[in-house]
Amino acid sequence: VTARIIDGKALAARVKDELKSAVEDLRRRGRLVRLDSVLAGGDPGAAVYASNQASACRSLGIEHALHELPAGASHEQIEGLVARLNADAAVHAIMVHLPLPPGCDTEQIQSRIAPDKDVEGVNPVNIGNVVYGRRSLLPCTALAVMEMIESTGVALPGTNCVCVGASNIVGKPIVVLLMRSEATVISTNKYTKNLSELTQGADVLISAAGRPGLITADMVKPGAIVIDVGISRQLGRDGTMRTVGDVDERVRQVAAWVSPVPGGVGPMTVAMLLRNTVDSARRALEGS
Ligand code: NAD
Protein backbone atom coordinates (compact mmCIF):
# COMPACT_ATOMS: atom_id res chain seq x y z
CA VAL A 1 0.00 0.00 0.00
CA THR A 2 1.00 3.58 -0.55
CA ALA A 3 -0.25 6.24 1.80
CA ARG A 4 -2.72 8.86 0.64
CA ILE A 5 -1.29 12.35 0.64
CA ILE A 6 -2.81 15.05 2.84
CA ASP A 7 -2.45 17.86 0.34
CA GLY A 8 -1.82 21.01 2.40
CA LYS A 9 -1.80 23.23 -0.67
CA ALA A 10 -5.22 22.06 -1.82
CA LEU A 11 -6.69 22.30 1.68
CA ALA A 12 -5.23 25.79 2.08
CA ALA A 13 -6.71 26.85 -1.27
CA ARG A 14 -10.16 25.72 -0.07
CA VAL A 15 -9.80 27.68 3.18
CA LYS A 16 -8.66 30.76 1.26
CA ASP A 17 -11.69 30.55 -1.05
CA GLU A 18 -13.99 30.61 1.98
CA LEU A 19 -12.05 33.51 3.47
CA LYS A 20 -12.31 35.58 0.30
CA SER A 21 -16.08 35.80 0.60
CA ALA A 22 -15.85 36.41 4.37
CA VAL A 23 -13.49 39.34 3.72
CA GLU A 24 -15.92 40.75 1.14
CA ASP A 25 -18.83 40.33 3.54
CA LEU A 26 -16.97 42.18 6.32
CA ARG A 27 -16.06 44.96 3.93
CA ARG A 28 -19.75 45.41 3.01
CA ARG A 29 -20.52 45.62 6.72
CA GLY A 30 -17.93 48.38 7.15
CA ARG A 31 -14.92 46.48 8.51
CA LEU A 32 -11.74 46.46 6.50
CA VAL A 33 -9.76 43.24 7.13
CA ARG A 34 -6.12 44.08 7.70
CA LEU A 35 -2.98 42.35 8.98
CA ASP A 36 -0.32 44.49 10.66
CA SER A 37 3.03 42.77 10.77
CA VAL A 38 6.15 43.94 12.56
CA LEU A 39 9.50 43.16 10.94
CA ALA A 40 12.62 44.06 12.90
CA GLY A 41 16.01 42.46 12.84
CA GLY A 42 16.98 42.35 9.18
CA ASP A 43 16.68 38.54 8.95
CA PRO A 44 16.47 37.63 5.23
CA GLY A 45 14.25 34.57 5.89
CA ALA A 46 11.77 36.68 7.87
CA ALA A 47 11.73 39.31 5.11
CA VAL A 48 10.88 36.64 2.49
CA TYR A 49 8.14 35.26 4.75
CA ALA A 50 6.72 38.78 5.25
CA SER A 51 6.62 39.47 1.54
CA ASN A 52 4.95 36.09 0.79
CA GLN A 53 2.45 36.87 3.50
CA ALA A 54 1.71 40.26 1.96
CA SER A 55 0.85 38.67 -1.38
CA ALA A 56 -1.26 35.97 0.31
CA CYS A 57 -3.21 38.76 2.05
CA ARG A 58 -3.67 40.76 -1.13
CA SER A 59 -4.99 37.73 -3.00
CA LEU A 60 -7.87 37.58 -0.49
CA GLY A 61 -8.54 41.32 -0.36
CA ILE A 62 -6.88 41.62 3.06
CA GLU A 63 -4.87 44.78 3.55
CA HIS A 64 -1.28 44.18 4.68
CA ALA A 65 0.55 46.85 6.66
CA LEU A 66 4.24 46.11 7.13
CA HIS A 67 5.93 47.98 9.98
CA GLU A 68 9.64 47.69 9.36
CA LEU A 69 12.20 48.69 11.98
CA PRO A 70 15.96 48.86 11.31
CA ALA A 71 18.12 45.79 12.04
CA GLY A 72 19.45 47.39 15.23
CA ALA A 73 16.00 48.19 16.67
CA SER A 74 15.86 48.02 20.46
CA HIS A 75 13.47 46.05 22.63
CA GLU A 76 11.83 49.32 23.72
CA GLN A 77 11.29 50.48 20.13
CA ILE A 78 9.54 47.23 19.21
CA GLU A 79 7.45 47.29 22.39
CA GLY A 80 6.50 50.90 21.65
CA LEU A 81 5.37 49.97 18.14
CA VAL A 82 3.29 47.05 19.47
CA ALA A 83 1.69 49.40 22.04
CA ARG A 84 0.73 51.87 19.29
CA LEU A 85 -0.79 49.09 17.20
CA ASN A 86 -2.70 47.79 20.26
CA ALA A 87 -4.18 51.26 20.78
CA ASP A 88 -5.18 51.80 17.13
CA ALA A 89 -8.83 50.91 16.50
CA ALA A 90 -8.13 50.38 12.77
CA VAL A 91 -5.74 47.56 13.74
CA HIS A 92 -7.31 44.22 14.70
CA ALA A 93 -4.60 41.67 13.75
CA ILE A 94 -0.95 41.92 14.80
CA MET A 95 1.96 39.56 14.23
CA VAL A 96 5.65 40.00 15.06
CA HIS A 97 8.14 38.29 12.76
CA LEU A 98 10.97 36.31 14.36
CA PRO A 99 13.85 36.36 14.95
CA LEU A 100 14.02 39.74 16.69
CA PRO A 101 17.34 41.60 16.95
CA PRO A 102 19.81 40.45 19.62
CA GLY A 103 19.01 41.88 23.05
CA CYS A 104 15.24 41.72 22.57
CA ASP A 105 13.16 39.57 24.91
CA THR A 106 10.93 37.79 22.39
CA GLU A 107 8.52 36.27 24.94
CA GLN A 108 8.02 39.61 26.63
CA ILE A 109 7.22 41.33 23.34
CA GLN A 110 4.79 38.54 22.44
CA SER A 111 3.08 38.97 25.80
CA ARG A 112 2.53 42.68 24.97
CA ILE A 113 0.38 41.97 21.90
CA ALA A 114 -3.27 42.57 22.82
CA PRO A 115 -4.77 39.05 23.14
CA ASP A 116 -7.70 39.81 20.83
CA LYS A 117 -5.29 41.07 18.12
CA ASP A 118 -2.73 38.26 18.57
CA VAL A 119 -3.34 36.33 15.33
CA GLU A 120 -0.44 33.93 15.86
CA GLY A 121 -1.71 32.96 19.30
CA VAL A 122 1.66 33.65 20.95
CA ASN A 123 0.53 35.73 23.93
CA PRO A 124 0.53 33.51 27.05
CA VAL A 125 -3.12 34.51 27.59
CA ASN A 126 -4.07 32.84 24.30
CA ILE A 127 -1.85 29.85 25.02
CA GLY A 128 -3.68 29.53 28.36
CA ASN A 129 -7.02 29.72 26.56
CA VAL A 130 -5.96 26.72 24.49
CA VAL A 131 -6.00 24.66 27.68
CA TYR A 132 -9.38 25.95 28.86
CA GLY A 133 -10.96 25.54 25.44
CA ARG A 134 -12.21 29.11 25.44
CA ARG A 135 -12.90 30.89 22.19
CA SER A 136 -9.61 32.57 21.38
CA LEU A 137 -6.94 32.96 18.74
CA LEU A 138 -5.09 29.63 18.62
CA PRO A 139 -1.53 29.03 17.38
CA CYS A 140 -1.65 28.64 13.60
CA THR A 141 0.51 25.51 13.19
CA ALA A 142 -1.52 23.59 15.78
CA LEU A 143 -4.74 24.63 14.02
CA ALA A 144 -3.24 23.51 10.70
CA VAL A 145 -2.42 20.07 12.11
CA MET A 146 -5.95 19.65 13.49
CA GLU A 147 -7.52 20.63 10.14
CA MET A 148 -5.28 18.17 8.32
CA ILE A 149 -6.23 15.32 10.64
CA GLU A 150 -9.90 16.25 10.23
CA SER A 151 -9.54 16.16 6.44
CA THR A 152 -8.86 12.40 6.62
CA GLY A 153 -12.32 11.84 8.08
CA VAL A 154 -10.92 9.90 11.07
CA ALA A 155 -12.68 10.68 14.36
CA LEU A 156 -10.20 11.43 17.14
CA PRO A 157 -12.04 10.12 20.24
CA GLY A 158 -10.60 6.72 21.11
CA THR A 159 -7.46 7.13 18.99
CA ASN A 160 -3.92 7.00 20.36
CA CYS A 161 -1.93 10.06 19.30
CA VAL A 162 1.78 10.67 19.72
CA CYS A 163 3.33 14.11 19.25
CA VAL A 164 7.10 14.19 18.77
CA GLY A 165 8.37 17.61 19.90
CA ALA A 166 6.97 19.75 22.70
CA SER A 167 7.81 23.40 22.06
CA ASN A 168 5.53 26.09 23.48
CA ILE A 169 4.26 27.28 20.13
CA VAL A 170 4.07 24.01 18.18
CA GLY A 171 4.18 20.69 20.09
CA LYS A 172 2.40 21.70 23.31
CA PRO A 173 -0.64 23.37 21.70
CA ILE A 174 -1.01 20.39 19.33
CA VAL A 175 -1.09 18.04 22.32
CA VAL A 176 -3.69 20.15 24.11
CA LEU A 177 -5.95 20.44 21.04
CA LEU A 178 -5.76 16.65 20.63
CA MET A 179 -6.70 16.24 24.30
CA ARG A 180 -9.62 18.60 23.77
CA SER A 181 -10.74 16.31 20.94
CA GLU A 182 -10.76 13.46 23.48
CA ALA A 183 -7.90 11.53 21.92
CA THR A 184 -5.43 9.68 24.15
CA VAL A 185 -2.22 11.65 23.80
CA ILE A 186 1.48 11.10 24.46
CA SER A 187 3.87 14.06 24.30
CA THR A 188 7.52 13.24 23.60
CA ASN A 189 10.73 15.26 23.46
CA LYS A 190 14.46 14.83 22.90
CA TYR A 191 14.87 13.05 26.26
CA THR A 192 12.15 10.46 25.57
CA LYS A 193 13.44 6.90 25.90
CA ASN A 194 12.45 4.26 23.35
CA LEU A 195 10.62 6.74 21.12
CA SER A 196 9.83 4.06 18.54
CA GLU A 197 7.95 1.91 21.09
CA LEU A 198 5.62 4.84 21.65
CA THR A 199 5.24 5.86 18.02
CA GLN A 200 4.47 2.26 16.99
CA GLY A 201 1.25 2.48 18.99
CA ALA A 202 0.11 5.73 17.39
CA ASP A 203 -3.01 5.87 15.23
CA VAL A 204 -2.06 9.50 14.64
CA LEU A 205 1.62 10.44 14.69
CA ILE A 206 2.68 14.08 14.54
CA SER A 207 6.34 14.97 14.22
CA ALA A 208 7.42 18.50 15.10
CA ALA A 209 11.05 18.01 16.08
CA GLY A 210 12.88 19.59 13.14
CA ARG A 211 15.08 16.48 12.72
CA PRO A 212 15.22 15.20 9.11
CA GLY A 213 14.66 11.45 8.84
CA LEU A 214 13.74 11.05 12.53
CA ILE A 215 10.56 9.11 11.78
CA THR A 216 11.38 5.91 9.90
CA ALA A 217 8.99 3.29 8.52
CA ASP A 218 9.63 0.82 11.37
CA MET A 219 8.41 3.43 13.88
CA VAL A 220 4.99 3.75 12.25
CA LYS A 221 1.88 1.67 12.90
CA PRO A 222 0.41 0.26 9.67
CA GLY A 223 -2.55 2.40 8.63
CA ALA A 224 -1.55 5.40 10.77
CA ILE A 225 -2.05 9.07 9.96
CA VAL A 226 1.36 10.80 9.91
CA ILE A 227 1.57 14.58 10.02
CA ASP A 228 5.01 16.06 9.34
CA VAL A 229 5.46 19.53 10.84
CA GLY A 230 9.25 19.62 10.55
CA ILE A 231 10.91 22.05 8.15
CA SER A 232 14.66 21.71 7.61
CA ARG A 233 17.01 22.61 4.78
CA GLN A 234 19.19 19.75 3.63
CA LEU A 235 21.68 19.11 0.86
CA GLY A 236 20.09 16.70 -1.62
CA ARG A 237 21.88 13.93 -3.55
CA ASP A 238 21.98 16.21 -6.60
CA GLY A 239 23.96 18.78 -4.60
CA THR A 240 21.12 21.33 -4.30
CA MET A 241 19.52 22.48 -1.06
CA ARG A 242 15.98 21.24 -0.47
CA THR A 243 13.29 21.58 2.16
CA VAL A 244 12.59 18.38 4.08
CA GLY A 245 10.46 17.30 7.02
CA ASP A 246 11.08 14.84 9.86
CA VAL A 247 9.45 11.86 8.16
CA ASP A 248 11.37 9.44 5.96
CA GLU A 249 9.99 8.78 2.44
CA ARG A 250 9.54 5.06 3.17
CA VAL A 251 6.90 5.79 5.80
CA ARG A 252 4.53 6.12 2.83
CA GLN A 253 4.68 2.34 2.42
CA VAL A 254 3.28 1.79 5.93
CA ALA A 255 1.00 4.70 6.79
CA ALA A 256 -2.52 5.29 5.46
CA TRP A 257 -2.11 9.07 5.28
CA VAL A 258 1.01 11.23 5.15
CA SER A 259 1.41 14.98 4.90
CA PRO A 260 4.28 15.99 2.60
CA VAL A 261 7.03 18.58 3.10
CA PRO A 262 6.92 20.94 1.34
CA GLY A 263 3.23 21.33 0.52
CA GLY A 264 1.78 20.06 3.80
CA VAL A 265 1.53 21.82 7.15
CA GLY A 266 3.39 24.90 5.83
CA PRO A 267 0.70 26.25 3.45
CA MET A 268 -2.06 25.29 5.91
CA THR A 269 -0.31 27.29 8.66
CA VAL A 270 -0.44 30.39 6.45
CA ALA A 271 -4.13 29.72 5.74
CA MET A 272 -4.81 29.48 9.49
CA LEU A 273 -3.04 32.82 10.07
CA LEU A 274 -5.33 34.37 7.45
CA ARG A 275 -8.36 32.73 9.06
CA ASN A 276 -7.35 34.10 12.48
CA THR A 277 -6.98 37.53 10.83
CA VAL A 278 -10.50 37.35 9.41
CA ASP A 279 -11.88 36.04 12.74
CA SER A 280 -10.30 38.91 14.67
CA ALA A 281 -11.83 41.41 12.21
CA ARG A 282 -15.24 39.81 12.69
CA ARG A 283 -14.92 39.98 16.47
CA ALA A 284 -13.78 43.61 16.29
CA LEU A 285 -16.90 44.39 14.25
CA GLU A 286 -19.31 42.41 16.40
CA GLY A 287 -17.65 43.56 19.65
CA SER A 288 -17.35 40.09 21.15
P1 NAD B 1 11.95 23.62 18.78
O1 NAD B 1 13.39 23.42 18.45
O2 NAD B 1 11.53 24.76 19.64
O3 NAD B 1 11.40 22.29 19.48
C1 NAD B 1 11.74 21.02 19.01
C2 NAD B 1 11.11 19.98 19.92
O4 NAD B 1 11.45 18.70 19.40
C3 NAD B 1 11.64 20.00 21.36
O5 NAD B 1 10.54 19.75 22.26
C4 NAD B 1 12.64 18.85 21.41
O6 NAD B 1 12.75 18.27 22.70
C5 NAD B 1 12.01 17.89 20.42
N1 NAD B 1 12.98 16.98 19.81
C6 NAD B 1 14.15 17.29 19.20
N2 NAD B 1 14.79 16.18 18.81
C7 NAD B 1 14.00 15.14 19.17
C8 NAD B 1 14.14 13.73 19.06
N3 NAD B 1 15.21 13.18 18.49
N4 NAD B 1 13.15 12.97 19.56
C9 NAD B 1 12.05 13.53 20.13
N5 NAD B 1 11.87 14.86 20.27
C10 NAD B 1 12.85 15.64 19.80
O7 NAD B 1 11.22 23.67 17.38
P2 NAD B 1 9.74 24.19 16.97
O8 NAD B 1 9.75 25.67 16.88
O9 NAD B 1 8.72 23.50 17.79
O10 NAD B 1 9.68 23.63 15.48
C11 NAD B 1 9.77 22.24 15.22
C12 NAD B 1 9.87 22.01 13.72
O11 NAD B 1 8.67 22.45 13.11
C13 NAD B 1 10.99 22.79 13.04
O12 NAD B 1 11.50 22.03 11.97
C14 NAD B 1 10.30 24.02 12.50
O13 NAD B 1 10.96 24.57 11.36
C15 NAD B 1 8.97 23.42 12.12
N6 NAD B 1 7.84 24.38 12.06
C16 NAD B 1 7.01 24.25 11.01
C17 NAD B 1 5.92 25.09 10.90
C18 NAD B 1 5.01 24.95 9.71
O14 NAD B 1 4.26 25.84 9.42
N7 NAD B 1 5.04 23.81 9.02
C19 NAD B 1 5.67 26.06 11.87
C20 NAD B 1 6.53 26.13 12.97
C21 NAD B 1 7.61 25.28 13.07
CA(first)-CA(last) distance: 49 Å
Number of helices: 9
Reading side by side through the largest sheet, how are the strands ordered? 1-11-8-7-5-6
Q: By helix and strand content, what is the structural category?
A: alpha/beta
Radius of gyration: 19 Å
Query: What percent of the residues sit in helical stretches (DSSP H or I)?
Result: 25-40%
> What does the main sheet amount to?
6 strands, parallel
Structure ligands: nicotinamide-adenine-dinucleotide
Percentage of residues in strands: 15-25%
Model description:
Helix 1 packs parallel to helix 9 and helix 6 packs across helix 7 (171-180). The N and C termini lie far apart (49 Å). This protein has helices at residues 8-28, 44-59, 75-87, 106-112, 124-132, 140-150, 171-180, 195-199, 265-286, and strands at residues 4-5, 34-40, 63-69, 94-96, 160-164, 184-188, 204-207, 225-228, 232-235, 241-244, 257-258. 40% of the residues lie in helices and 16% in strands. With 288 residues, it is α/β, with parallel strands linked by helices. It contains nine helices and eleven strands. The protein has a six-stranded parallel sheet. A three-stranded parallel sheet has the order 3-2-4, sandwiched between helices. It has a two-stranded antiparallel sheet with strand order 9-10. Nicotinamide-adenine-dinucleotide is lined by residues 141, 164-167, 170-171, 188-190, 192, 195, 208-211, 214, 229-232, 265-266, 269.
